[in-house]
Amino acid sequence: MDLLLAGVLALLAIAAATAFGPKLGVAAPLLLTLLGLGIGLLPVVPAFEIDPEWILAGVLPPLLYSAAVSMPTMEFRRDFSTIGGLSVVLVVVTSVLLGLLFAWLIPDLGIAGGIALGAIVSPTDAVATSIVKRLGVSPRVVALLEGESLLNDASALVLLRASIAGIAASVSLWSVAGSFVYAVVVAVIIGGAVGWLNLRVRARVSNPTVNTVISFTMPFIASLPAERLGASGLVAAVVAGIVTGRGAAKFLSPQHRLSDVQNWRTVELVLEGAVFLVMGLELTAIVDDVEASHAGAWHAAGLAAIALVATVLIRAAYVASLFGGLARRAKRAATIKSVLDDRARGIPSTTPELERRRAEYEARRAKRPRRGDPEPTPAQAERFRAIFRRRVADIDYYLDERLGWREGTIVVWAGMRGVVTLAAAQTLPSDTPSRSLLVFIAFLVAVGSLLVQGGTLPWLVRWLVPARDTSADAAERRELRGVLRRAAMSELADSDDPELRAVAEKLRAAWQLSMDEGTDEPDGADATDAVEARAPSSGDRRELDTAMIATAAASGAEPGRTAPRVDPGQVRRLRVRMIEAERDALLDARDEGRFSAAALNAALEGLDAEQISLEIRGVEG
User: Fold this and answer.
1) 197: buried, middle or exposed (CB in 10 Å: 19+, 13-18, 0-12)?
2) What is the DSSP string of 36-98?
């Protein structure tokens, strides 16, 4: 009964922190950590400790899977090398440098023990992403932080495993590198296979509730076999989530995706909140252990402060060098962009570097034996054009989302520690030298970074980042809307039914008139009788589109005759057909990278919401 009551109170605390945190200007994880600390100090509360395997094997896989499903894959692909540097190179550099520092500061710890502690405090937490998303930060910065938090856990845990082995016996650099490559490659294969099967199996399940239950098992179906084979279960869960997120719009129905989103948000809220609440509760018992067996909590707090400052400085140095390389990459992208623009206008390029490369290419081509250059097939030509459009979209992305010192400062300060640090610290073997001290230092680094960096991050973002210009976002949404409308019109125009082609022509004229007049939508109030004898909401664009379809179809009567009444069911079925064509065009635009993830997600949500509404009103019947 007491355990049940504690669970209910924890859920209420999580809900309250989530609801009131934004009003107080404090992130919910920070409030829950402080609440756990306060409760742990009460004399009536017993010492609390949880098995770290529950967090590593039971909590982290679903959390990372859920985050990976919503990860914008196009941004992830574009900055994969940068994310990989933050997730692997920075983790290794931080672990080694901190290992040398800890080996010097803590007697009898040794290099291997120091690197183990460095690996524990090196991975960042995804809580920073939830903070910066609300503050208008560049989507590219959000993608970097999100991708880093998804992948650096595996790097840190593999390095920790090797360091623990090194405490008991000598371990070579090649064995560590080999174990890391094995852990990642096997996990990617398993995660990719699970994600692929997940989409195919769930596409055949019509019940949204059953579909969501199956989705809850996917993180564990990916992570448990990977762990059993000695690979990284977290990477397997992340890869399964990325594959699922990329193919969900194609394989899963709108009802299934909507159900997934709502249920997984609830799971994320409960699991994240519980972990941060437990973090505060466990700290009291660790302090007592340190006081009894070491120089005291203040000595450990000093070591933790040094470690926290060192992690920030190491991260700042690495991010500065990394962003310097990205700035040079942006300059090259600008040069390539100017060349492409010149070629599009028929202007020859005269850049010396380009002339040199062209001469080298012509020289290599002259040495090759002459073979007939066959004309590409239409499919090959379209594939080449798609690759070219994607490359141009990538260049535009690098130029529009440049990363300067402001973004670099945010990336550095947003590298706070959290869940993985706490769980990894408790996986240290019981015979590890100064184990309780190491665990306490890791806890203080995590709690300190959450309180100091997390508490000041909103203020820092508001100070550094100017308000984003929303006019460009509005123009992008209008452009995307035009792409989707043209796809819908093409679907109707290609029909064998002449009446559908006539409807498409009338709709095209009406929508073109609305675009020429600078309005988002034409007036659809006259279509009331043609749909279901009720006026569509003026704020619902999709309802207006459906009304316009009925109006265009009913307006085909000959002069002097009464327009025929249109069957509402036929109108709704026609609109669903258009929605499916729009969704296909949206996925093509996503693959080419022509629009931002925010615009694409908003458009997809709108299409899904309307299709669900139409199906509820009887389109399937």
Assistant:
1) middle
2) HHHHHTSTTSPP----HHIIIIIIHHHHHHHHHHTS-HHHHHHTHHHHHIIIIIHHHHHHHHH
Contact 543, 536 (CB under 8 A): yes
Cα dist from 440 to 23, 223, 309, whole Å: 32, 28, 16
User: Dihedral, CA atoms, 223, 224, 230, 232, nearest 10 degrees?
Assistant: 10
* Residues 314 and 97: beta-carbon distance below 8 Å: yes
Separation of alpha carbons 495 and 508, rounded Å? 15
For residue 143, which of 332, 397, 457 has the smallest C-alpha distance? 397
Distance, CA of 55 to CA of 50 (rounded, Å): 9
Q: Which of 123-132, 455-464, 491-500 has the highest mean pLDDT?
A: 455-464
Please choose, from the candidates 367, 397, 526, the residue with its C-alpha nearest in 3D space to the C-alpha of residue 75: 397
Rg from Cα positions in the chain: 28
Return the structure tokens found at 230: 């000695």
How high is the pLDDT of residue 373? 53
Please state the pTM of the whole predicted model: 0.78
In 3D, which of 187, 104, 425, 410 has the Cα closest to residue 289? 425
How deeply is 256 buried, as exposed, middle or buried, from its count of CB atoms within 10 A (0-12, 13-18, 19+)? buried
User: Using CB atoms within 10 A of its CB, is residue 615 exposed (0-12), middle (13-18) or buried (19+)?
Assistant: middle
Q: What is the DSSP letter of 526?
A: G
Indicate whether 563 pLDDT > 50: no
For 197-228, the pLDDT digits (tens) are 999 999 998 888 888 889 999 999 999 999 99
- pLDDT tens for 319-361 read 999 988 888 877 777 777 666 665 555 555 555 655 665 666 5
pLDDT for 362 equals: 63
**620 and 574 in contact (C-beta within 8 Å)?**
no
Q: What is the pLDDT of residues 473-504, one digit of tens each?
A: 778 888 888 888 888 777 766 666 666 666 66
Residue with the larger pLDDT of the pair 540 and 294: 294
Residue 328 makes CB contacts below 8 A (sequence gap 6+) with none
Query: In the 8-state DSSP scheme, what is residue 412?
Result: H
DSSP characters for 534-585?
A: SPPPTT-HHHHHHHHHHHHHHTTSPTTSPPPPPPHHHHHHHHHHHHHHHHHH
Round to whole Å and give the CA distance between 519 and 281.
56
Nearest Cα neighbor of 415 from 302, 328, 317 is 317
Pick from 119-123, 324-328, 591-595, 600-604: least confident: 591-595
Distance CA 391, CA 335 (A): 14
